[in-house]
């Protein structure tokens, strides 16, 4: 499993929160992290380096012209390959970490899993790339994450909401 960390969503985001995001990712054994660079690319590279101090390896990915997790998934497709992954904004923490959500995702393995509460934390299988292709063709400017979730559900693929205690099926 990989992690796709989205930066540049909030100008001047608190670096201590960003660092904790990287630690939460490492805490669940995810060591392959792609950081989508926003406006403060140089500062992010300087602060994170190669990721060793956080227990992860980092690949820096340029942000697409259009911000947002849907566009980031599209832009990072080659790096993501066929791996399952989690999207995680730099400025959002999941209280208590993502351990229970990772376990629920790995056990159930839905096409998509939405983490309720903090905006922007999603788990995906490689099925999302088919959604990006389909939605990209229909969307001007790029896919929204809700469009990707809706497309997956419309294809009969499982999309769930995973609160720490109980993943439940949803339909966007």
Automatic annotation (TrEMBL):
This is Uncharacterized protein. InterPro entries: Nucleotide-diphossugar_trans.
């Amino acid at each position: 499993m990989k992690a796709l960390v989205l930066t540049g969503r909030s100008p001047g985001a608190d670096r201590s929160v960003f660092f904790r995001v990287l630690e939460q990712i490492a805490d669940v054994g995810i060591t392959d992290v792609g950081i989508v660079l926003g406006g403060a690319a140089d500062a992010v590279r300087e602060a994170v380096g190669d990721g060793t101090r956080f227990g992860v390896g980092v690949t820096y990915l340029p942000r697409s012209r259009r911000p947002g997790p849907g566009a980031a998934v599209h832009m990072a497709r080659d790096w993501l390959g066929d791996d399952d992954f989690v999207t995680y904004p730099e400025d959002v923490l999941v209280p208590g970490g993502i351990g229970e959500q990772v376990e629920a995702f790995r056990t159930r393995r839905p096409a998509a899993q939405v983490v309720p509460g903090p905006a922007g934390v999603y788990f995906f299988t490689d099925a999302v790339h088919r959604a990006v292709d389909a939605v990209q063709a229909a969307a001007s400017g790029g896919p929204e994450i809700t469009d990707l979730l809706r497309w997956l559900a419309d294809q009969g693929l499982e999309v769930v909401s995973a609160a720490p205690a109980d993943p439940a099926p949803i339909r966007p």
